[in-house]
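re: that complex we talked abt at group meeting.

here r the seqs, copy pasted straight from the sheet so there may be weird spacing, ignore it
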Amino acid sequence: MSETHAITVEKVLPYPPERIWRTLTRSDLLAKWLMPNDFEPVVGYRFTFQTKPMGDWDGIVHCEVLQCDPPRLLRYSWKGGADTNPDYGSRLNSEVTWTLTPVEGGTSVRMVHDGFVFPGNRFAYDAMSPGWGKILDAIARVTAESEVSPSKGMPAA
Amino acid sequence: MTPASQLSAVMKTLADPTRRAVFERIAGEREIAATALVKGSKVSQPAVSQHLRALRDAGLVVERREGRHIYYRPAPMGLAPLNDWLSHYEAFWRERLDNLEKLLEEGGDE
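got the structure back, here u go
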């Protein structure tokens, strides 16, 4: 049994969703702030991000567009890394979801990177590391209340 | 151990459900005697000993001997490799989102 953890990063930017959507979905713009890529905003389209090779990993992130709903929601798979690498270069079979929500004065940009598979459930980790809850942030708190059995507890993005 | 082998050692060690149960038991205590762990476990004493050795070798628990007794406590930094893994990605995304904000600020998205 294992449990999947997610990273959430959220920011309000003073621009309309359409303009931010363009930076998320136009390959040349995406390359400017994220990584070189051959992205196209088409569901089912397979593309890659290229970053520095690291250890046994060639630095290529293999992706597939899973959901594309302009200018609101973009979701793609994110696979790469190698078992022998630490941290950033470690093997990952995950998903990245971008959600744009219009708010007063701009757009809330929310990125959820889900699929960090840890062995076992979260209880042991909570007991062991005080900094843990901080990383999992609000998501963890919401599930902790509803989580009676230590099953897969993280909500989807 | 290098950070890479630490992460995979922790992953592999905790992948075994019985061993994980032993670890979770220790993680919930300040310190616990090996004999108490055997009593509370469904598996045999040699099996528990083997799991304890694996947990110790992965840096997840710390062993203390006192006379004929052996005690175990959770290693404070035992799960740090898992934390590092996530925090690296979190830092990565924060940095990239800052890039995105800067690009928009400078009008580089025209």
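couple things i noticed - Residues 49 and 157 of chain A are 22 Å apart (CA to CA). The radius of gyration of chain A is 17 Å.
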